[in-house]
Amino acid sequence: MTPTGLYAPTEPAAAAMNEHKELRADRGWLASAATHRTAASPAKISGNLQNLQRIAERWLPVARSRHAAAAGSAADQARWDTLISAVISAQHISPDSRYEGLVLLAMQLRSLLYAIHHSAAPPHVPVVVVAERITEAIEKGTYPAGSRLVPSALAADLEESVPRVKLAIVDLVTAGIVEWRGRHPHVTTPGAQLGMSERLAVRIREQIAAGVYLPGTPLPTRPELARTFMVSPEPLSAALRLLADDGLLLLRHAARATVAPTAAKAEMVPAAGESVVLNVRDRQDTCPDTRPIIIREAARIARSWWMSRFIPHPATLAHQVCQLSTFARHLLPRATAHAATLPPGSEEYRNLRLVVARAAEMEAVPLPADLELRVWHGACLATAVTDLLAITEASAHAA
User: Fold this and answer.
1) Distance of alpha carbon 364 from alpha carbon 295, whole angstroms
2) Which end of the chain is more exposed for a tag (fewer CB within 10 A), N or C?
3) Average per-residue pLDDT in the chain?
4) d(Cα 130, Cα 163) in Å, to the nearest integer?
5) 313 and 363 co-located in one domain
6) Containing domain of residue 261, as a range?
């Protein structure tokens, strides 16, 4: 009998209930779609693949509707773009690797259905609204300038879900209202010159102009860039988007960012990328102690200051940065000499050229006036020095 009166569910509520039931059924089936028993039977693989394709066809339109509903939140839309693209890409399964393709498609579908499930969970609040509520709380002083934002605590305060809060924080970082300090988001301090993503965009722009990253060539992978610049993935992604908006980088899904072929040609010193490698021989100072253990300890201290956001006495900081610069000048000629023994077109040569060019630029660039930025500069220089040390030690062992 069809429910009537006060007990009859509304059409939207009934549709949501049906969607929830189908979602649970498909998620339950996905849990056992790719098992060893499936791999042992070609017929089972074929049948499960057909079921996976049907599940994909059923839920991809729902995911696209969630993407459209996320308008106003770049972070949320980027998340849906990634999930949808991953499923579509996994649908193209090679006949030679049907079981491996089945496993990959099942994995990507589980991620997609998990996101759909949580997007349908109450409260039904768009991420852009969550970001607005956090902004209002910051403006009212609930979260003072410089304070750390804990996603779980924010979610409890605002009665929102943690995933929506995390996406809202990413949007607020892009807007400059929040900044990343190490791995944690903090309310931006009023009067700060730039947020972390903007600061990072400036540094990458300067290194492109200096010839560290050459026009038409891919940047290092995002994990490698995050390690090089001592930042977390979120401000790095925001910085790359800023540079792409300016036409300096080309961004493609599931590919490394590439320097635009015409990027900053007018600002570059001619052949800067190669001249850095050739001219560092003239920059050699006398070091009192260049044992690897001393170099690594100096680098460790500089990186720990930045990771903990500790600002030492200006004289102590100046001494540490000066020491790291001296180490860089000591190691650069050795790394350059090793580069001369490699075939110019080889991958090893290109990687070594990048390390040397980056270290030389970091050592020569003027120091920032702001103490916090100087701590960051010291941490990045420390990473460059340890990379140089690894190259020189490897070349010594090879000899």
Assistant:
1) 19
2) N
3) 81
4) 11
5) yes
6) 197-267
Amino acid making up residue 181: R
Residues pairing with 249 in the sheet: 259
Same domain, 183 and 227: no
d(CA 178, CA 388): 34
**Last-in-domain residue among 64, 88, 120:** 120
Measured distance CA(229)–CA(380) in Å, rounded: 5
Q: What is the pTM of this model?
A: 0.54
Tokens 């709380």, residue? 137
Nearest to 232 by CA among 192, 289, 154, 173: 173
The per-residue pLDDT for range 50-95, each reduced to its tens digit, is 888 899 998 999 999 888 888 888 888 888 988 998 889 888 877 7
The predicted structure's pLDDT at residue 195: 74
- Angstrom distance (rounded) from CA 27 to CA 52: 11
What are 87-122's pLDDT values in tens digits? 898 888 777 677 888 888 888 898 898 888 877 666
Nearest 5°: the CA angle 110, 114, 120 is: 145
Looking at the structure of the chain, the number of domains it has is: 4
Q: In this structure, are 374 and 308 located in the same domain?
A: yes
Distance CA 165, CA 42 (A): 44
Cβ atoms of residues 91 and 57 within 8 Å: no
With a CB cutoff of 8 Å and minimum separation 6, the contacts of 95 are none
Span 353-382, pLDDT tens digits: 899 999 999 999 888 888 888 999 999 999
Among 267, 300, 316, the domain-final residue is: 267
Per the domain annotation, does 192 fall within a domain?
A: no
Are residues 162 and 175 both part of a single domain?
yes
The number of residues making up the chain comes to 399
